[in-house]
Each structure stands twice: as structure tokens, then as C-alpha cells.
């Protein structure tokens, strides 16, 4: 089943000189797939993510998530759609400092007026799953970056979203924490069957995906599949970035 279907998607940012950020994008992500989007700076990755996440609207073309077109929804319906169908994980975690880790995690359910018992049950289950039960009462400034990202992933997963969107989730983490977060996302993808789309510059992060799609100058150019060896996939990703004009020279295979 197709969980995400992007058809003929175009985005032009108007201005004195209009920027054509995306051109005729066709992308399908099947239920349970974990797909990475990579490409050089300015290639259109964030624009694509913003159109899929409904933060921005396409100039033309269509986005379907779980068979629904979110861009056709009214504002209120769209807010509910985002809470129920989408999970978001960001580079800077986007947790609220004034709330505890537990309060941050249940926020999507609170906004959806779910009963307290259901919130508590889901909170305990996801916290256990992610190994963060002992930090639920802490504030976000009392925990490490890796723990913050785990809390953010718990918040993204608590409503069992149709599609989890991760925007540079390892961008603020050291290599150990990055690896832990990617292993966690991979495990959740495998065990919960959550469909995931990751946008990243980081070949290590992308090497945890089943498939990586490359974008250049607003067009999808190539895609590669992981197969059995993550290490070989990591190398293929670096080779492709280098071919596309990415910054492979900054990368070290030590991170494999
Ligand atoms: N709000 C905007 N208004 C005008 N142009 C924009 C806007 N946002 C992005 N662009 C342009 O659209 C193109 C694609 O940008 P986008 O941010 O999607 O690239 P990216 O691949 O995410 O880059 P990076 O890896 O550096 O984050 C670029 O040429 C950029 O300058």
C-alpha cells in the first residue's frame, strides 16, 4: 500500500527572480518503508519536506498521505490531520522547556483531547519502548541531546502516525548519539512498521534507510537501495553524493 504518493509536484518561490525549487517530483513511499532524501545544499530537500508535511503549499501537483490529500483540507481539519497522521522529528528537537519530558511526549494527545488514562497508557508504553522511563519527570534542559531526541521521537510516535518525517534528526548530535538515534528509528520502523521519510546531509544517518533518493536542482535524479550491508550502502551513498557534487570530502568512513 502506498503511504506517500507525490505526483507532478512543483514549487516556485515567487520574487523579483522566481526560484523554481522543485520540478515534476514523482515519489512513492510504500507502507513500512524507510526512505532517505539526500542532495547538495539548495537542491530542494527542505522544500519537499515542507510540502509533504503541509507546512507549505505546492505550486502544482499533488501530495497524498494514506490516500488523503492534506492540501485540500480546511485549516482545522489539516491541524487534526497533522496530529493524527504525521509525526515530526527535527534537528533541534522542538521540545518545550517549560514542560517535563512526559508532558512533551503526550502533547499531541493533549491537543486532541484524548482521555487521561489513554495518555498515561500510551506514554508508559512508548517510554518503555524507547528506554526513557527514568527521565519522564525531568525538564528538557536536564537531559542530554540524545535523550532529547529520544523524547522527541516518543512524541512523534505516540499517536502511531501513518508517516514519520525526520528533518536532520542527527544534526545536533555527536556520532555516538547519532548512531543510537538512527538505530532507534530503524528498530521502530522494523517493529512498529512505521513508514519513515528522512531528510539528511549525513550519510551515516541515511545508511539506516531502506532506500535513498537523491535530488539535485529540484529534480529527483537517482535512487539506491540498501540490500544486506549497511557499510556498503554507506559507501554507495558517499559515492553518489560525490558524483552529484555533494561534500563527500568532509566525510570520514570512520563513522561507519
Ligand atoms: N522561502 C523561500 N523563498 C525563496 N526561495 C527559497 C525559499 N526557500 C528555499 N528557497 C530556494 O529554493 C531552493 C531549494 O531550497 P531548499 O531549502 O529546499 O534546499 P535544501 O536542499 O533543503 O538545502 P539545504 O541542504 O542547504 O538545507 C534554493 O535555491 C533556495 O534558495
Automatic annotation (TrEMBL):
Gene3D superfamilies, sorted: P-loop containing nucleotide triphosphate hydrolases
- Coiled-coil region list: none
Q: Which Pfam families match?
A: ABC_tran
User: Does the keyword rRNA-binding belong to this entry?
Assistant: no
| ABC transporter domain residues | 4-242
Q: Does the keyword S-adenosyl-L-methionine apply?
A: no
Report keywords, A-Z. ATP-binding, Nucleotide-binding, Transport
The UniProt entry, under PANTHER family, shows:
ALPHA-D-RIBOSE 1-METHYLPHOSPHONATE 5-TRIPHOSPHATE SYNTHASE SUBUNIT PHNL, LIPOPROTEIN-RELEASING SYSTEM ATP-BINDING PROTEIN LOLD
- What is the similarity comment for this entry? Belongs to the ABC transporter superfamily.
Protein name, UniProt field: ABC transporter ATP-binding protein
Q: Tell me the organism.
A: Paenibacillus mellifer
Source taxonomy: Bacteria, Bacillati, Bacillota, Bacilli, Bacillales
